[in-house]
Amino acid sequence: MPEARGGRPRDAELHSAILEVTRELLAAGSYAELSMESVAARAQVGKKTLYRRWPSKAPLVAEAVLDAYGRSGSFDVPVSTDLRADLRAWLVEHAEFIADPASAALIRALIAAAAASPADNIALYQQLSVPQHAGISARLRRAVDDGHLDAATDLDAIADALIGILLLRVLTQTPASEQPRTEFDGLLDALLDGALR
Amino acid sequence: MPEARGGRPRDAELHSAILEVTRELLAAGSYAELSMESVAARAQVGKKTLYRRWPSKAPLVAEAVLDAYGRSGSFDVPVSTDLRADLRAWLVEHAEFIADPASAALIRALIAAAAASPADNIALYQQLSVPQHAGISARLRRAVDDGHLDAATDLDAIADALIGILLLRVLTQTPASEQPRTEFDGLLDALLDGALR
Amino acid sequence: MPEARGGRPRDAELHSAILEVTRELLAAGSYAELSMESVAARAQVGKKTLYRRWPSKAPLVAEAVLDAYGRSGSFDVPVSTDLRADLRAWLVEHAEFIADPASAALIRALIAAAAASPADNIALYQQLSVPQHAGISARLRRAVDDGHLDAATDLDAIADALIGILLLRVLTQTPASEQPRTEFDGLLDALLDGALR
Amino acid sequence: MPEARGGRPRDAELHSAILEVTRELLAAGSYAELSMESVAARAQVGKKTLYRRWPSKAPLVAEAVLDAYGRSGSFDVPVSTDLRADLRAWLVEHAEFIADPASAALIRALIAAAAASPADNIALYQQLSVPQHAGISARLRRAVDDGHLDAATDLDAIADALIGILLLRVLTQTPASEQPRTEFDGLLDALLDGALR
DNA sequence: TCATAACCGAGACGGTACGTCAAGTCTTCAA
DNA sequence: TTGAAGACTTGACGTACCGTCTCGGTTATGA
């Protein structure tokens, strides 16, 4: 416990309240439309309080999104004896999360934040994708260990494909017409069974 | 021949000159750093001239990027007798385009522009992904017709996987550490040959 | 007849039509609110046509006002045997002209034009006051000649006082509460008879 | 004690600093040449700060000029036993103020400002003329009380004549040719002694 | 008669300033 | 020291006019 010598301590509840307000505004508008000013006004908070905690808009949005992502269930890859079922379950879980317009808006906002500040690009975006990649990789590696998967398989490639397909879906899906197909069987067939005759 | 009776016609050369200036500024800085004002100043153009043609920054940037994308070679999927080689060639061509820092900056700008205008959000992404999807699909369908690919294969899923992987790469790649591996053999092995033992 | 070699001659009716439109807009708004663009639009005239005839807003407004002033009756000083009656008649005539809100707006516009462009200040404003001054001076001089007025009287001072009082009235009168007193007897008493006991 | 709970208070020094800068720019150029932007730049002040205090250019200029007018001596009508001398002193004081090119520029700017905002038009002029009128009227009334002036005299008419003559002088005087005669004896002779033979 | 030349409406052009909005900092009072 | 409130500088936004220019097209003269 190094510091905080004297003075009033920071209000811990404010932190989550601000993140919540940020998410609300993000669901209502776009990343660009969200302003520090509007967050401060909606949260009934001085702008100084905002800047005391986050250096700028991008990190605030990043934390708000990742906070929601972390809180909304685990997104861990299931581990059963059926690899295909496990992967499908993981994909479906993500797809349903993405299908919620509010969640999709959050992810789009995170991408926008990353694209807007190329310096934080990595830190910001990979914070979301790296854990997913790790989870899928681990599950695949276990499948190799269990002899369910060919040892020569490029596990990273498969993980990237799964994540990439979800990413593409977030960005191109229309709020109106939800993509009905959340089965992913065709994808998993191709990835696991192969397609060449 | 509907309209434009009377009045001085718009200068067509200005259009491309402005797009070029926009690209230059985008290569030098981020989307957020680019301002309509700086474009106007650099292009020696009145701001009104900008707003006469593009309602805001986002569509201007979008057109500038897509214009460059359209002009920079075709990115058509090659058609030889070797499906795997054709797909790999297409992937490598895109990967190299993406790896070029200037191009990556343009794409990041496009993403930021899409995030800025939620209305055009999907339209913008689809403008990029739909033609690619069509190209890949067509090539795959031909492979099915030629008997090289299993007729039951989910062609859309494969196309989405290929596009998704490139998308993921754009978003996660850092300016510093270029991803060295542009082979995609592992991915194609998995997708075409299958991985399940 | 110096020039006009070849080419279509200028449309003479346009001239007065534009001046009329200018006056209409001046009656509706202020000098500052009037724009060359609005004049052109309202008169269904190209801007080039405006600038071909007047170098800028101030001269256009000046001509529009002076044109109306010149057209609206004579404002000549009457010449009877009764100096006081003549001056009062002249004052009343002016006062009634001024009491019309549209006319007052025109004069205010002329003053604004003069104040806005100090270079044309003299030319612009004195064009209005000098003829009045001359008219009054002449009438006063005649009164001196006729022996009705003391030869030592400062005729210019009296003329200035009469014009100045009208000027003050234009600028300070409220559109709502017209100044009821249009008699000017008190003023003429003071100026002609003196006030010192 | 009504309001202003919390928040940083407005900087009072900025107010006068901005007015001073406005006057400097007005002395250098015309009202039309002065821009809010130039005021902000010269005063090292954000435009928001300007617009927080004045809704537009006209009121700012008005306050700047009236502030200088109020600060530059009192222009009170002297009160001695000699009415004519007192009035002459007052006239001369004003005439000299008007003759100063810097002051003339300020007054021209005030006139332009008044013309720009038709709503404040009268208010603005009256702000200048009413106090003067009151001062002169009071002095004249005192002269009546002292028996120096005929009780039947129209005091308002005399006051208006004096103010009107100064107004005329401001408007017609050119920067180049200063009117040399600042005596006003002819005017005062006519007004006080009368001219009719 | 037919070219030449100035005119005309329309509206795009490069600029400058407008008045608004947001970013990020600073200053006050209260807790 | 934290907070809410809000003024501060800076700089971009999108709009309005300025005065100039370029279109297609008209209307007079003069070859």
Automatic annotation (TrEMBL), chains A, B, C, D:
Residues 12-72 form the HTH tetR-type domain. Residues 35-54 bind DNA. Transmembrane segments: none annotated. GO terms for molecular function: DNA-binding transcription factor activity; transcription cis-regulatory region binding. Keywords: DNA-binding, Transcription, Transcription regulation. InterPro entries: Homeodomain-like_sf, HTH-type_TetR-like_transc_reg, HTH_TetR, Tet_transcr_reg_TetR-rel_C_sf, TetR_C. PANTHER family: HTH-TYPE TRANSCRIPTIONAL REGULATOR RUTR, TETR-FAMILY TRANSCRIPTIONAL REGULATOR. This is Transcriptional regulator. The lineage of its organism: Bacteria, Bacillati, Actinomycetota, Actinomycetes, Mycobacteriales.
